[in-house]
Write a structure and sequence with these properties.
The protein contains seven helices and no strands. By secondary structure, the chain is mainly alpha-helical. It has one domain.
């Protein structure tokens, strides 16, 4: 059942990608940025490349989390789930501004228990984008038919989740456990 479900999902993704650049306005994923510039067949290649990048990122994040002994019930587990969700919203080609309500799940992971995440400039930039980008989109300030300012919300949030305030990569510190770069 799992393989057939994965095949059906991939087929739906391909069919949807073939229609998306003509019928889907206001995309809040990276697709909104490149579909306004790149046309077929390259747009389909970029869609597929984004999904492959998400799979690769998840493989690295899950490998690092497992190596660090992170469990889903712990603080590191919340960060792993937040990275998965936010990167999915950024990299899948069919995310709209209304879908960004799911980002609320990731905010505790980036802010921290005592709001220590606010010391990271990327976190503050994310909060600013979260407060302003949807309003700009709502009032029609989008640069073109496909691109919205809401794409910056998952982009900045993913950058904040993947870095610490000192610019260290958080993948090496998932769950507060330091790991070597090797």
């Amino acid at each position: 059942m799992g393989a057939s479900l994965l095949g059906a999902w991939a087929q739906t993704l391909i069919v949807y990608a073939h229609r998306m650049d003509n019928r889907q306005p206001l995309l809040s994923s990276l697709a909104g940025a490149y579909l306004s510039v790149v046309k077929r067949p390259w747009s389909i290649v970029l869609n597929d490349l984004c999904v492959v990048c998400w799979i690769g990122l998840m493989a690295v994040v899950l490998w690092r989390a497992r190596r660090a002994g992170v469990t889903l019930g712990g603080e590191g587990g919340l960060r792993v789930v937040a990275i998965a969700l936010v990167s999915w919203l950024l990299l899948t080609p069919y995310v709209h501004p209304a879908d960004l309500v799911l980002i609320g799940v990731a905010l505790p992971a980036v802010l921290g228990r005592r709001l220590e995440g606010l010391s990271n400039p990327l976190t503050r930039l994310t909060i600013g984008a979260l407060l302003t980008a949807p309003t700009l989109d709502l009032f029609g300030f989008s640069p073109n038919y496909l691109f919205t300012y809401s794409v910056f919300v998952p982009l900045f949030l993913l950058a904040a989740l993947l870095t610490r305030g000192g610019g260290q990569t958080a993948l090496y510190h998932i769950g507060g456990v330091s790991g070597s770069a090797a």
